[in-house]
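To whoever picks this up:

The parser on our side crashed when reading a file containing two proteins. I've narrowed it down to the boundary between the first structure block and the second sequence. Both blocks are reproduced below exactly, byte for byte. First block:
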Amino acid sequence: MLYPKTSMSDALQYLTEQLDSWRKAGTFQRLRELESPCEPIAKFDGREVINLASNNYLGLANHPKLVEAAIEATRRYGAGSGAVRSISGTMSLHLELERRIAAFKNVEACVVFQSGFAANAGTVSALLGAEDHIISDELNHASIIDGCRLSRAKIHVFRHRDVAHAEEKLEALDGVAGRKLLITDGVFSMDGDIGPLDKLTELAERHGAIMMVDDAHSSGVLGRNGRGTVDHFHLHGRVDVQVGTLSKAVGVLGGYVCGSRDLIDFLYHRARPFLFSTSHPPAVPAACLAAFDIMEQEPERIEQLWTNTRLFQEGLRANGFSTGRSETPITPIMVGEAATAHAFSRALFEEGLFATGIGFPTVAEGKARVRTIVTATHSREILERAIEILTRVAKRMNIV
């Protein structure tokens, strides 16, 4: 049967108009196609370039042990689980991974979600309701923001990393009905700075608030063997809800929430992404288990990540780049306007380096940047070449 060719209806014409405005402003982005493993030098759109655009912090995404574990699990259990976790989709590998993460994070229990976004959004929206209050850093991740909105709780935003402002918000809620949740990123994904979790935890304890941290960009980066900001600040037993990811330093896919046994059992019953999404295929938890083995057995990977980070950031600053307030391997190169950031990114790609331009609404207007992330597997030679390319193109474009 032949179907007529579809065209944009009048009702959707506004989409074309919006896309045209982005093209005119120079902020329209085309997806680049990865045609190789995610490595320091990878093949995108048919050409090999230095890859500074991935979250593969420890270089585990194509590690042979993870690949072997995924293949073996697929052969043994099949390609998929066949159902959501709450029906028949909870496999022994899923439970083994949850126990492993709980032990790694020094908590009673853990639940794994299909993505880090689902973990944040599903947890916040499950824990709170319309009568409750959320005190949230203004630069928290979009998944936290969406979870806050889905919960229908009243949202109180404090200035970025401003502990005094967060305290003002909490003090104003003393005696007000409803639960209170204080939430922050552990490492902020656009700026690479570390949230003041130690001071915020003290606030939460004083005001009877639930303390929650999103450790997506801290997992595998901060703390002993990559245990995250709770370990980094020595806060074990004091942070009620810890969110992490399996999609970045762990190198695979998914998110997780750690905390008390009751918290996890509650999320098993009420977190909608957990209840209504088919569970990970066996290859995913198997590969994640292999990744945690490597993280515990090879701490030198994290040491190399930080050595590379210092080398790269010092090189950028020596050549006149502004790297904002970064304290981690996330290194923004601040350029100001979104059109400039995207043009810089395109020019870098033509010279053999992939780093993503980011502008409004992902970041505030006037604070556009090209975001770069180094990994443990970038060699000194590659990083020095990257600095040379960045500097040469930036000078040509009058960015430095």
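<<boundary where parser fails>>
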Amino acid sequence: MVNPIILDGKSLAEKSNLEIAKRANILTDKFKRPPALAAIIVGEDPASKTYVSMKEKACKSLGVKTMTHHVPEQATTEELLELIEAINQDSSVDGILLQHPAPKHIDEQKCFNAIALHKDVDGVSTNGYGNMAMGLEAFKSCTPYGIMRLLENFQIDCSGKLALVIGRSQILGKPMSALLLNADATVITAHSKTKNLEKLICDAEIVVAAVGIPKFINCKMLKKGSVLVDAGYHPSEKCGDVDMKGIEDIVSAYTPVPGGVGPMTINTLILNTVNAMEKNCSEQ
């Protein structure tokens, strides 16, 4: 394969950020406050702190206000639910982000589901997922939606294609499969119990790797001319879920790591927050 398309999420996010900043400025002038995102982080997980800090920095650069609530590690599910409800009732907040993962003693899904649907800008609630899967109005999960925006921007047509999603997490694999299905792809969702995974990879025209294991997939398994989306990133190894050596000779398009999916995730979160303010303020 000669000169495959590089699905450059960094450049697309930068382009989208210009439009988001304009919209945020208009909203600030009109409603006398900026779009606002409340982030909740439970405990002292270093990776979670880094991710939230990155989101705060990105929001600030685009004129979106962030309010970060640092909750002690020993907090209970009930205490977290009380905080979420208080933010639900705060009309100056447009979106709520509960940083994943929460400590194991927290009922994370119960807390996700407590986020008001019109503030679920991270697309993590059960109702939001259901609406999204059924093609109804909902904030779509940020990483899967960011991937779909990336494919659309580079004119990757999913219709009729055999798509393989490797991973079935609540916030990535499952919603990714649903969005591809809604885009008229024929979708297979693979996971730890899947048999003959290598054969499925060889047959798929679109592969989304979301397993969270460094270089889990050798790119030489991929079908010639297929499209690869690597949704993994492992900072210590500076790689994704796919061993990319030789990728240019195999696929027709692929996401670089880093610089592919990651920038689109943060951009989509901020886009959803601005969309939330526009919708909620217009209905008041």
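After patching the parser it read the second block fine. The chain has a mean pLDDT of 96. The longest strand covers residues 36-42.
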